């Protein structure tokens, strides 16, 4: 966890306080169920809720001796609850507490991330409608292709994050399980009802079959999904970085008063937020492989996954939360320059209409091969000499044999390219 | 693609023949739609279907000159179709063909993999029921814990692969889209109807909004999902490798007549198939990160993803197909040794019942801390000196103050541990 | 291995023919040593060299039965050599042959890659000198910073690849070892002299201590090094892609006659080679993690590394060989546009000199904070309104209080920025 | 950084205090050099050393406004130094400070890690000599192969870490550079002498050619090397986990008084430290790919690498430091059970001698194929029925036709396998 790339709500979720609070709830709910079943006295369950408490420093102190965190916690709990604490944790194994707790944390993390994505989707949608008809050149390979609109770029990002949202909903489901199944998952020492009860209280599903642990394919899927989301963040970040290049400057991160771009060059306004997002994406993504390596635990479990999750659990979710929020803010405040968009588009002397010329020629009966040759021969002159494409075409006899001057002019109409913007917005926003 | 780790159906899917066949279908279906719209003559569409064909060597020859594969294909197609071929590909961009083709290949690959997983699930289910009640020791940290059954191990694997199957269904949906939207995805030169028509014919959904390409977050999710599945394969493979260890030998890969384990040591029967699966899992998993790195294409597209997909597209799917089939065969033929399971379980002189002793003591009123101390002190003697745990307990006065000899004996009953096998099977297999 | 991204020499190295040839040499050299030691008859060693041979199809046929490749090879060898073949492989284990062979292949691969890097270094050096003094704007964050020269960019790439070359020399050393140490590496059944002899004949060092296999940390280091080299390729590829952007166009990949940029847009000249290199870099890099996962083999060995190496061994080296050669060709033929460089640099109305103004002001006694404020206030006007920076400064009284008009003009001198180009070239090229 | 997996010295290195201290030194040394060159007054340089200071909270406060950390630091420094501070940082760019600082931190981290590795090597060497002649079975594929000694296992690990040490020395060299070259690395505003001076004072080499930043291929190589080292840690950790398995128990992590293995099962002594190391290895390794992705910065630099390095810089070095120290402690305290080693080895009824029988047969004139058949047929009986291998051979007429009973007995001699232990120790330890 890097403090400057973290936000308080998500960070709090991973602090010892939250963890032990969840442990306590798991144990206390389990006591309720055990009491219902008559396995332990009802008063014991009540005592746990009434007097149960913990103190982090004390737990740490006990753990230094026992080298076992759950036992340390239970010992500390007993110090508050007293004798009745001997009924706590009965029939359970440490992993019941640890794994269920981790899944509570991950589902809560997912909820925060889903909220983040809602905010991002709202920002993208607003920006899409604000600039729905602002024409700019589409670029493939970094080279001018044909016109699009800035709104379409935002709509594309919206669609991508709508997919990511759905993926995260699936991934959340994948880790929203609870295991209270005892030492090796057989319920030998604890009735399945306890698991059902605790799961319900915590908003989880019972894990259908656990070993000692909740199977780690679930977590691998969760972190892989975060990696995909991070990659989408990178895509938009890279787009904005490109648009802010000095020679392009079609959009720009908001640059606040007092901000300094460079200690050496006072004129600089750099896309540092989106560059930062590009790096954060790498950090989130790097959790994917270790999460997958965690799946192949030995037999009913080994504990190699634990240190990995102590790292990537907080780090990947905190970083992604921060990155989503930062991206939302970048989008909301993004300064867009429609005039520059038009200026850039016109730099190529009309070459972006070359395909339409090609189509017009073929529709006028010229063979595809010939049409391509005609277009390319004129295009290359524009490219090399900066001439005007339309003029060249009007002066090319082979072209004018097929197309009148009027037809040629019609081909250079911008609205031709934006006629399906509504169609695409309807597909994306459903409205 | 490594020939020895590939199967014919999946491999064929990625051969030039398949690819060009799909290209042809995309173009021909698009012509149908264009003809319906009146954009091109109906005869042209018919001519494409009637005379359309391609020859791989000829395409390669043309590509060597044009350095552009789709143009090479279209030129070759024209050689078969003749003049009417000028109507082919109208308003489309190469990516419309390439990306839609890739998604056809990936959905077909997913179908093969789903079939593989059905076979694997069937094998796991059969093995689970065959050994439902074969008790073996559960191990955490590689150390004996408490009894489970071999059937439960198989059921756990079944549940894991049932989850993986569902993930793959989701991932398949993610890449089952078709884009026929023209140069930069604006439908400027082609009506959205063409996309709808081609999508329907190919069993895909129209891509709601493409740039020039189908967005690569879809493919990232797909390959990440393959990575998770591979990790689950690794888990089972590692389990079997452990069970086949000389000192354990609770299960063993089938060893055919004529097979040789070692050029030097003729007695050896090695778990080479599951070791191989462990390696194959790494190979499948390694596609995840490059697929994620592919997401951040520049502007409306760059072509950096293409070489990556030429590698990981075939490699990850072919390897996973092979690995799933190999795992299925390993499971089907797995030789299981229930006697060895019991022998191993009894090695620890009854220590695996220590938790039950602990529970019995607390239920008899001993404090948890005291109970733990009593159990551990006897357990450590067994551990060090190989004594019999039950006997020691019967001779420990502090223990017998709380538990009668009869109670102690009751605690060592194996059926206690298997009483919920039915519950778990019902949860997993629903029956 | 993707045929279109492979070159014949490297590809041949990984074909069965090469592999079995190396196997044969290992066995035959081992026989010589064994004969010298008197362990086997001298005639047997001679017979192996004289009559030894193999046929790939026949080996495959035998392997289908034995499921063991080395035994299949030895059986086939015996078919050629006859009875004396029983002395072949004596005291050796399959891994002695397999691992030594792999290391021969990897060292040969490294030699090809080193040759590739020499070619690349030569191309970079030539380009560096050709454009040593061609001034272009340096960009940080994609934003104009201060002037550099195109030659410096090439020199930087040269220095980076000179480092990479040294890393590869180290990595080659790491895998240039030979193990002929028998079943579990103890030399129980074979004298260490045999290993020394074979190592010498094959240009390798004896592995100081092997288990059954040559330890895989060596290979992990090798593939990690390839990953770093690939990342450097990506860096230069991305640089060229940026420089070829329509709005920048300071350099451009060579575009051959007959080449087609787009099936739809005939005017397009896309940086497809460097985009391709960006993707190939991802492919090479993905071998790193599986190679690291291969290190932790079980006990004296398991065979999980083998399938991984069958994949990444050929794939990473073939792809990197192709990528290096392609990059060399891109650099050699790169079309550079010095005029565009100057035009781009002048776009910002002199803002790139802002730091020098800042320095001049502080040297004239203005406080750093004040100087920064003065420069930024004028720079922001240029940025917003496109004004001329020098003119603005001359009209800013606070500035002219510290700097005369002559001093201000002096600050806008381009040669100021290139005065250390010679220093840097001397550092990089030593001349 | 995970507190429980970190040690104070390495952690301190990455704290703000250390960072700003290094920044201060870079700036102050640079002032000295500038004063020597006559660029700034000697008193200014003296003032910086005399009065220079910083306060972290104040820097943070300023950064919140300027959003630029180096400017914030310089502003705070000025508050201590006063007016003469305007000569500080002259001609430098932020990256000169940041990148040189990072390399100081990484070289210091490398020094700590090298010390860690020396400790580990010493522990491995001691354990190797302590158990040089303790025979245990070597295992390939988890299956008994032939005898080795526990000392050889330790020697193998020693050799592996000696290689890793050398790799880290190389990697340290790779990042031990200093750049003080100004805005885009051209030395336009600062004399190369300043870089040379600062480099010397900080124990670094001048970066031959920087852009605005020190090239990131250096850091990629550094983190990749940490990844290889982590993989070697995993290998030994996995070895110990295997040896501690209940059925094997040839070695065991030290289990302290008071330690608790399981909250549920008091008898358990789990290899939790080596399982933890297995997980930590994954964490260190995951830095490799993002470090490689950092290489391809745009043009003269972008800042995407920065957030990545804020994560992996501390995390990978702190985790590896902790892991090396933990592994050293595990090795030092490792409890070794030579008796269990012999017991396990004898479990297979002498089958581990099968290869020697094979050799003896071929040396007695039996063909390799026949010898293999004879050995395998007897071995399979042992395998299936638990018979004694030597007895079976003595009763196999085809065998006794070639080998006398005496010869057969000679083949079962353990010392045969350990005769080259000295050779191997000499190779590894040079003594």
UniProtKB/TrEMBL annotation, chains A, B, C, D:
Transmembrane segments: none annotated. Pathway: Purine metabolism; IMP biosynthesis via de novo pathway; 5-amino-1-(5-phospho-D-ribosyl)imidazole-4-carboxamide from 5-amino-1-(5-phospho-D-ribosyl)imidazole-4-carboxylate: step 2/2; Purine metabolism; AMP biosynthesis via de novo pathway; AMP from IMP: step 2/2. The keyword Lyase applies. It catalyses: N(6)-(1,2-dicarboxyethyl)-AMP = fumarate + AMP; (2S)-2-[5-amino-1-(5-phospho-beta-D-ribosyl)imidazole-4-carboxamido]succinate = 5-amino-1-(5-phospho-beta-D-ribosyl)imidazole-4-carboxamide + fumarate. It is an enzyme of class 4 (lyase). It comes from the Bacteria. InterPro entries: AdenyloSucc_lyase_C (IPR019468), Fumarase/histidase_N (IPR024083), Fumarate_lyase_CS (IPR020557), Fumarate_lyase_fam (IPR000362), Fumarate_lyase_N (IPR022761), L-Aspartase-like (IPR008948), Pur_lyase (IPR004769). Belongs to the lyase 1 family. Adenylosuccinate lyase subfamily. CDD domains: Adenylsuccinate_lyase_1 (cd01360). Residues 349-429 form the Adenylosuccinate lyase C-terminal domain. One of its GO terms (molecular function) is lyase activity. It comes from Sneathiella chinensis. Its EC number is 4.3.2.2. Pfam families: ADSL_C, Lyase_1. This is Adenylosuccinate lyase. Keywords: Lyase, Purine biosynthesis.
């Amino acid at each position: 966890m890097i403090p400057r790339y973290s936000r308080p709500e998500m960070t709090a979720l991973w602090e010892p306080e939250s963890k032990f609070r969840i442990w306590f709830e798991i144990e206390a709910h389990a006591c309720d169920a055990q009491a219902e079943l008559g396995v332990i006295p009802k008063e014991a369950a009540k005592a746990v809720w009434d007097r149960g408490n913990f103190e982090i420093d004390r737990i740490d102190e006990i753990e230094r001796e026992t080298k076992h965190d759950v036992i340390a916690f239970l010992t500390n709990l007993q110090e508050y609850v007293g004798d009745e604490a001997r009924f706590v944790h009965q029939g359970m194994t440490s992993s019941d507490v640890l794994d269920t707790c981790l899944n509570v944390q991950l589902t809560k993390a997912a909820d925060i991330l889903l909220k983040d994505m809602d905010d991002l989707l709202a920002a993208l949608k607003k920006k899409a409608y604000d600039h729905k008809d602002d024409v700019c050149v589409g670029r493939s390979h970094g080279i001018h292709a044909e016109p699009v609109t800035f709104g379409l770029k935002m709509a594309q990002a919206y669609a991508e994050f709508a997919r990511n949202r759905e993926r995260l909903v699936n991934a959340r489901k994948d880790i929203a399980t609870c295991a209270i199944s005892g030492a090796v998952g057989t319920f030998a020492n604890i009735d399945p009802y306890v698991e059902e009860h605790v799961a319900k209280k915590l908003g989880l599903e019972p894990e259908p079959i656990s070993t000692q642990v909740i199977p780690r394919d679930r977590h691998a899927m969760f972190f892989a999904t975060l990696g995909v989301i991070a990659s989408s963040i990178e895509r938009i970040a890279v787009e904005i970085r490109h648009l802010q290049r000095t020679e392009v400057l079609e959009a720009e991160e908001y640059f606040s008063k007092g901000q300094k771009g460079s200690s050496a060059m006072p004129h600089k306004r750099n896309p540092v937020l989106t560059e930062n997002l590009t790096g954060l994406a790498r950090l989130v993504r790097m959790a994917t492989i270790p999460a997958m390596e965690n799946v192949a635990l030995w037999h009913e479990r080994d504990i190699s996954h634990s240190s990995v999750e102590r790292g990537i659990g907080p780090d990947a979710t905190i970083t992604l939360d921060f990155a989503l929020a930062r991206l939302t803010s970048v989008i909301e405040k993004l300064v867009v320059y429609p005039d520059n968009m038009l200026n850039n588009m016109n730099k190529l002397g009309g070459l972006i209409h070359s395909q339409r010329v090609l189509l017009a020629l073929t529709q006028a009966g010229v063979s595809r091969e010939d049409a391509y040759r005609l277009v390319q021969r004129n295009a290359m002159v524009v490219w090399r000499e900066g001439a005007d494409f339309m003029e060249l075409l009007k002066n090319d006899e082979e072209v004018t044999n097929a197309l009148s001057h009027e037809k040629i002019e019609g081909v250079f109409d911008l609205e031709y390219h934006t006629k399906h913007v509504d169609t695409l917005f309807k597909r994306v926003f459903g409205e």
